[in-house]
Amino acid sequence: YVLSHVNLDDVPTEENIRKKLQEMQAISLQNGHAIAIARPYPITINILKNWIPVMAEKGAKFVPPGNFAAK
Length: 71
Fold this sequence. Notes:
Elements: E1 6-7, H1 14-31, E2 36-37, H2 42-57
Parallel strand pairs: 1-2
């Protein structure tokens, strides 16, 4: 199994989701990776649609969490 570092939309507001994305970035820089969980709330999807391409341009890679599971 895989444990997440961040729950992006435990409080589904723009302010909270953006704060959690910053937290996830910090964890990723510190650990070399970060695992986040998110629900398919419209606000989450809209924020991620804009955020993911920006982060990809900065070199972030997005992979399924199963990539981190022990085999």
